């Protein structure tokens, strides 16, 4: 276990990509806390799967767009686990709308979850990592939408692109504390993939346009995003910071 005993928090961690990341971190030896708005059956199942790997787990309910709730979440995490070594920013919100139909409320909500929440959680994690004086890793889940534009993805695409710039600033300013900051760019996802099974074959349901732009002819899995998060948080990526790693089957090369 390359990260035995490390303490990791995954926001938006109770299902899909978040669950894949949490389980990959647990498999690598981390004790893992997961966050979402509320604890439910999905959250309980993720906690059970983490503990089945012999690691500690805990759930932390918080709205990451609220600085008060974010501070409370990190206080609870540190009290429970004794410190924090890894943060993975993975909250998700997306609603596809025509540019002309987007209202202020929708714009604010998307950027609140997909950008402001990343900022608040990263800042609070970094402050605690600085105080601990043992470095750390912050991994933020963006998307290929940060670099490729589709119809009706204005709010989501803007937020995902801004994550790249936020990460660069974090990498520059936090490097002196040995806090590394990196981004993962998922492409088309098979979010129903079961952790520990072989990647699925190409899904014809993607349709010709998507198939053409995915050289591997299949979707990525939450487990594969999790493995990338482990790499970027582990000694294997020891002096890597400020980068954006696509896990997209080659979509961005198309």
Task: Please describe the topology of this protein.
Elements: E1 7-11, H1 16-27, E2 31-36, H2 41-52, E3 57-61, H3 67-81, E4 86-89, H4 104-132, E5 136-141, H5 154-174, E6 179-186, H6 208-212, H7 222-233, E7 244-247
Parallel strand pairs: 1-2, 1-4, 2-3, 4-5, 5-6, 6-7
Helix pairs in contact: 1-2, 1-7, 3-4, 4-5
Structural class assignment: alpha/beta
Task: Kindly report how far apart the N and C termini lie.
Answer: 36 Å
Mean pLDDT score, rounded? 92
Q: What oligomeric state best describes the polypeptide chains here?
A: single chain
- Domain count, please report it: 1
Total helical segments: 7
Question: Which homologous superfamily in CATH is the superfamily?
Answer: NAD(P)-binding Rossmann-like Domain
CATH architecture: 3-Layer(aba) Sandwich
Sum up the overall morphology in one term.
Answer: globular
Give an overview of the whole structure:
The protein has a single domain (7-253), classed as Rossmann fold, CATH 3.40.50. It is 42% helix and 15% strand. It is built from seven helices and seven strands, in the order E-H-E-H-E-H-E-H-E-H-E-H-H-E. The longest helix has 29 residues, at 104-132. The chain is globular and about 50 Å long.
Question: What is the gist of this entry?
Answer:
It is built from seven helices and seven strands; from the N terminus they run βαβαβαβαβαβααβ. With 254 residues, it is α/β, with parallel strands linked by helices. The longest helix is centred in the middle third of the chain and has 29 residues, at 104-132.
Comma- or semicolon-separated keywords:
254 residues; alpha/beta; Rossmann fold; seven-stranded parallel sheet; 7 helices
């Amino acid at each position: 276990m390359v990260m035995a005993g490390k303490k990791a928090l995954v926001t938006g961690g109770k299902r899909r990509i978040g669950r894949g990341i949490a389980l990959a971190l647990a498999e690598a030896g981390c004790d893992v806390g997961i966050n979402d708005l509320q604890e439910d059956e999905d959250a309980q199942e993720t906690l059970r799967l983490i503990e089945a790997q012999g690691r500690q787990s805990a759930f932390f309910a918080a709205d990451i767009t609220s600085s008060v709730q974010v501070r409370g979440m990190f206080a609870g995490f540190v009290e429970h686990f004794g410190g924090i070594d890894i943060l993975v920013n993975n909250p998700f919100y997306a609603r596809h709308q025509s540019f002309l139909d987007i209202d202020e409320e929708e714009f604010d909500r998307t950027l609140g979850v997909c950008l402001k929440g990343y900022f608040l959680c990263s800042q609070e994690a970094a402050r605690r990592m600085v105080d601990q004086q043992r470095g750390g890793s912050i991994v933020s889940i963006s998307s290929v939408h940060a670099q490729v534009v589709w119809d009706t993805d204005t709010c989501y695409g803007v937020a995902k692109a801004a994550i790249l710039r936020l990460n660069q600033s974090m990498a520059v300013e936090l490097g002196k504390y040995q806090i590394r900051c990196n981004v993962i760019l998922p492409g088309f996802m098979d979010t129903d993939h079961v952790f520990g099974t072989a990647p699925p074959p190409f899904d014809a349901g993607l349709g010709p346009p998507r198939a053409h732009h995915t050289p591997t002819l299949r979707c990525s899995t939450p487990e594969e995003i999790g493995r990338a998060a482990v790499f970027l948080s582990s000694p294997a990526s020891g002096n890597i910071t400020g980068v954006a790693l696509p896990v997209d089957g080659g979509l961005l090369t198309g």
